[in-house]
Specification:
mainly alpha; membrane; transmembrane; transmembrane helix; about 45 residues
């Protein structure tokens, strides 16, 4: 078994990981939308 301080560290780390995951997901979604816009725009030029 671990010491008493380890669960506290885990409780702090889990929200940070979730927030980072959401930020990464948001950025990747924005990138996908940007790529989609560029594709639509290039199709319109043709």
């Amino acid at each position: 078994m671990y010491g008493g301080s380890n669960p506290d560290i885990r409780e702090v780390l889990i929200p940070i990981v979730i927030v980072l995951d959401m930020i990464f997901l948001f950025l990747s979604l924005r990138g996908i939308i940007k790529d989609y816009r560029i594709i639509k725009y290039s199709d319109r030029i043709r």
